[in-house]
Automatic annotation (TrEMBL):
One of its GO terms (molecular function) is lyase activity. This is Aconitase AMT8. Keywords: Iron, Iron-sulfur, Lyase, Metal-binding. It comes from Pseudocercospora fuligena. One of its GO terms (biological process) is proteinogenic amino acid biosynthetic process. The keyword Iron-sulfur applies.
Amino acid sequence: MSNKPSYEFALRILRLVAAQLQTRNDENKSWLIGNDNEATSLVHSAHIRSIQSIYHESHGPTAFLQNIHAILQENNELASADALRNVIDLCEADKEFGGLGLCDRSWKEVDEASLKEVEFLTDAWMLTTSFSGMRQPLVMTDAAVNVRDPMTLAQKIIAHHAKDVARPEGVRPGDFLRVNVDWIIASELSWVGMKNSLTGSSSVFRPWRNDRFWLSGDHAVDPRNYEEQNVKRFLEGLETAKFDFRMTENQGANQTIMHTEFCRERVQPGMLVLGSDSHTCSAGSISSLAIGLGAADVMTALGTGETWLKVPDSMRINLVGKPAWYIGGKDIILSILQKLKRNTNAAERVVEFGGPGAKWLSCDARFAICNMCTELGAITGIFIPDSITKCFIDGRKRKIYRNESLYFRPDDDARYAEVFDFDLGEVESFLAIYPSPDNVFPVSCHLGMAFDGCFIGACTTTEEDLVLAALVLKVGLDRGLHLAKGHRIVVPGSRPIAWNLERLGLMDIYRRCNYVQQAPGCSLCLGIGADVADAGSNWLSSQNRNFKNRMGKGAIGHICSAATVAASSFTMTLTDPRDLLDNVSEDTFDSFVTRCRSRAGGKIEVTRDTEAATKVDYVQPAFVCQNTAVSIASPRMPITGCPKTPHEISSRIYRMGDFVDTDAIIPGPACAKCKTDEELAAHCFEVDEPLFREAVSQCGLRVLVAQKAFGCGSSREEAVRALKGLGVLCIIAESFSFIFGRNLANMGMLGVTVTDPEFFSKAKHQMPIKIDVQNRKISIDDTTFAFALENIEMQLLRDGGLAASWRKHGPKVFSSLSRGGTELARNSRDEYSW
């Protein structure tokens, strides 16, 4: 006798599979489902299996899916079999690892909610079979490549993803290209901004693919605040996106910080990733080109599967020497920040890491380094793939997240804007003192600095960091060190990491040291959720940013490695971790890390010099050259008809300096609660420049003049929206951060770059200024300065911003913006349909 709910579930699953097969097969093959439940059969040529027989042979839902999977394989329906295999993997996986935990459960042991989730996943994954042929063109091996210009790693990835390049020799810095993307990633907070960015569009929005949108609740949501009204809005947004888009990669709330498990289990070498978060660059640790952008940019890419890029310059950092075994990525990137500083050599560039010293760095160490390349001011950071990368990827359990890896490497004679050598053997424990991540000193120079709290967490703190910090704490406990009064918080980056730490007994060490464990999320690193530091409190943290008010209004934060935080948390004063680390065994550390990786179905990547290193087969990019790539700039191109930007702007100057960050322009809490530009404007510079709003709105200082790297920091396009909502008409700067510069055009706001020192000597606070937009001239104190705008910027200004362009052109928006609407790509890779 059949259990009715489970039998009806089996019927629905079979219909989903058959319906997808019917749409994909030719007239000689058919998969049919009868309407009479008792007579329903799975039919393929001469092979017929009744639903009843399949159902009764199956102990439970997982076994039922396995039987369907076997039938699909027997009949060479490999795409559908692979899709169903992904559903089976999720059924078998523990809940801590993003699965359903249904491995051996019988029909009677599975509730209706779980059956509905399996049905949803089957529907979503079956949809992905229509994308099985949508891959980049075949690549060539190193030996087969024709004569081309030497290219950097970033240039090769861009060329491979380009819809068209300007010349058969390859791409060069300054080329404007339309490129296909592989992944879009977002948080629950940036997803709200993404949706709002296209408000007013008459068409129903759909992602170009339902299996390449990684959405994770981590910024503001926390189990402790789920009942708050604003947080409910974020949670509902996650759930709605999941079902509306039939998403396969919706992570829900507090399963993982958006970057953590994405890098550990999804992204592959050679991919192009866009994310609505500035730390998207973390995925460069896996040798992908991962770029953070504003919400409108990323939302449009999600709908089209493409974006535009101006090919950037790259700088090379050659890592040489061997670090002490306990030196991880955080101390290495702090050392680099100490030497290069923010927004200098790396600004507007891709930072490529390689050299003989890279073999000593695990993918976790590389993650921390790439994660903080945005603090350097870089567009992104990326490691040249090697045996460590390949071993890490090969260790993944699911082949779908291994088999699209492309191992590119820069040509030996690739042209870099600059090259730097960094000796890893010289790296020690460092501290970045408030309020800047490049205000770096050796820990030994500031011993005894007192703190009110210690925080170990944020995306930049990897599993290896958490393991090492726990071992440092254990040494302190074994020595009987006293625990001083103070706050201690630990936040693992994902539930899988937390599970590993728990089963290995490491989380218990944290608890014994009075650390309070919270759910995976940004926590104090952003300070807008359940964890907010008190005004005036002083914290030592392993996070990546220590800007003013970052952890909470009026709070002070200093950043360092997790090991340094752990060592300092006994006395709540800055302590060099080396003394405690001397009693930590390297073999013990390696053993714990290996066991962490093995639970996930993989193996630890090679991090020691060995002749048995995994062989990497490097390839060359394949690209299309039709000589129709986008022209670079036309300073004379008119912007007549632009509804938003006046032809002439006459106002007065509000003067600012270098490195004005988006956290200062619009505080994080305002991003979480404000919906309109006007609401955001009420919080613009409310902490750092409290007189700014009055100066703009009442005194008429509507042209903001700043200097280097204006808009650095977070990717939040709310910063531009706040300025626009307040009435700022134009921003002039010596340079803009990469993301902020794109956000200006995307929001339909005029941003002008001027490098002439004379301009900044004349541009005093409250000075009258006139901007002739039509003729690209700025007049101040009887002196005229010229400026230029790119074609794409002018097109966006004409339309009134990217959202207006989307409403006008829909999914063809980038082809319409390119060269005034000329279709650039004529190959079959363009067309994605639902």
